[in-house]
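Researcher: Let's run the pair from yesterday's discussion. Sequence first, then tokens, for each.
Model: Starting with the first of the pair.
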Amino acid sequence: GTDHGGYPGSHGEPAMIVFLGVLGLLVWLAEKYSMDHVLDGLDFATALDKTVVEPGEDFSWTMTINNRKRLMVPYLQMREQIPTGLVFSENGENVAAKSSGDHLSVLYLKGRQKTELERRVLLKKRGRYFFRGVSAEAGDFLGLQTALETYPELKEIVVKPAPSGWEELPRLLGGYAGEYVVKRSLFEDPVLIRGFREYTGREPLRSISWVQSARQSRFLVKEQENMTDLSCTILLDVECRDEEREAELLEQCFSMVRSICEELEKQRIAYDFQTNGVIAGAMGNWNRIGEGLGPGHLETVLEGLGRMTYDCRMGSGEFLSGIRKGLRSGKSLIYVAPDRNQDAAPYLSSLEERSGRRLLALYGEDV
């Protein structure tokens, strides 16, 4: 009559312990798998709808996130590395988080889900700006741990210089360009054809020689010699003596060159551009844009001005001496510099003597 039953439910305790152990193991394995693969199959891509903009012109900045795997991502925090000075077009607020300087977003992604985040933004100051990709932090399905990974990328946008606000500039340019207008009224622009060269895309379509292009099976433009020589060279000298105001004075110079080019375009006067500054980035470290006219030519100069740094490749004397060697008689010159440099004065006089025409000198310090 001995009772072998023990306590009620005692037979179920080992089974319950085994069940809980197996359940804990499964949860741990699921947790580990989740953490090992939470960032697998995630793609991030930045897209800009413009590459060159005016100061204050808005553009589209889109981040595309693609989860290519079946596993969901319950928590994803993106930290986008954006340029300083980026603001939302709608309200003018800074895009960057004050604490980090980056833009933060938190998302939930289903399996096989693709999401696009489009923002309208703008930049107010001239220069080159970069979007450098994303740092992504994703959490496991329990929300207990996170994994971090970076997705580097490089997208560039260039902001042109604003037109010059110097009130005196239109009068100075108007008087200088007026000399050409008078010549046009006296002559009927007789033209000699010196030869033909390959079309670059900056020349007006009317300059294309269709007969020669058909013969050579490539676009060729006429190299014309205008007997009234209505053309101009813009010289941008970035050597600055005033180190404290260098950035301010050079920005004034970039804006002046823009306004000069726009005035020459308005007067239909062909121009070329040369500088001793550094133009960085995708355009290459060039220092000269050949003679031309038209929207394509102007935009090339403006993009170059947007890309310019404050560095100087050579001093004023060396720069102007090199210009003199290739200067043809009758060529008109507009010289732009941040401040007056006594060392440059004899070279400017030499350029006037060589060209036989008055040189117009403009200085950022006068603005």
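Model: Moving on to the second of the pair.
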Amino acid sequence: MTKKYSDILIRIGEWNEQEKAYPVEAMVDDGSFFEGGQLVFDSAEVLAAEKNNEKYGREWFDALLSEPIRRAYNMARGRAQVQSDNFLRVRLWIDPDAAELHAIPWE
């Protein structure tokens, strides 16, 4: 028997020089769309946390899920609790022109 998942897609755009951030948007599987998020991070700080998986994951989680993307994630988690026994699939799409982000170990 296959598990049913709730789903959220988080998209990171290419670097926006004017905003000094990567734009982030999210879509929940009910069609809700959230935009206006920004990914900003201190690469030295994140890399320093790389040896500690929990801290490394928390650094990326907090950087990626700025408002309103955190609201989208919370909505998706709530849907997962109700509709799919807490199974939530988080899909990450990184713009092809954000090559520096493709080199990061996200998992």
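Researcher: Give me one sentence on the second I can quote.
Model: The beta strands are 6-12, 22-28, 33-39, 88-94.
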